[in-house]
Amino acid sequence: MDLFELFDLEVRENIMVQDVRTDKQVRNRYSYDVGEKLVGAKKELRALKESFLVSFSLDVLAEIEKESPVEALNTLDRNTLIPFSFELEKENDIPARVAKLKQLLVGRIDKKPIADTTTARKLYVQACRRIWHDIQLIHTSEQWIDLVGSYGKEMQNGWYALKKDKNVTYTFKRMVEEYFDEFVDADGMELLILGKKFISLCTNSKSIKSTYLRVSHELTWNDLLTKKVTTRKKSAAAWSRKLPDTLQRKGPEVEFATKPEDVVTMFGLKGMQFGHYCTEQYAKEHIEHVSEALHDVARILGIPPKYIGLGGRLGLAIGARGSGNALAHYEPS
Fold this sequence. Notes:
mainly alpha
């Protein structure tokens, strides 16, 4: 029994590898996409993110979720969903004290949803955009108190309903993670996703009062807009790995690929993808090194090179994913 019999896979023979390069790759000799489309490319996610950050459309967020839930979470940012600034408040003739109260309210909101679910991310967007809409209507400290108090009453109704139905005494975070989706449509649930600090402020009359009193009536715009001078310590130089200018192979001779189609054909891959910022020289070098490395992997495993792609279930992306230090990664089906 060989590898493919064990996993019930079929080896693809004589498959025509299609050139599926993007518009920005038309003139490239090495850095272009081939084979089947590999989802989750940074260039595609970037376009979706840019669209979301303009429209805040839940439909666009759902598209990002399909590509990568992690990227959907990374897209959400409190300060983007609620673009509060003292400069904008001053332009709108809001009193300095009221602007500071608004800032303190926004600062109580968690920077990310408290639960890592699709529903939580959707509600986080809705809740943040609602807060942004509401605080733009606030022009006096009395209106601020009324707004915060109304949030508190709404959340108390939702929180009590959640605890009463489940009859448990779990921590808030566990309650949200385990049961939130079941009560997502219940009254008062939307704002709960903004986190414990926000809930604590809005549901506690003493907290509302202390926050209100903490902001001086004498506060001026000069106080808010004057930036404090800070000094930074010099950071230590980052470690850099020293590599020879020319890499020399010491192992057995192998067949080198010279273009993306060669890599896909040699190793039975689903496809190969390059990021738009991957230069031609970079792509050429990595096509050679990838083919060299995968031949070595096949030799170590004792399998034919064409088995590396698991019958076309795996693809390979170079410079097309993430913002970390990985140069390439396998893309599973």
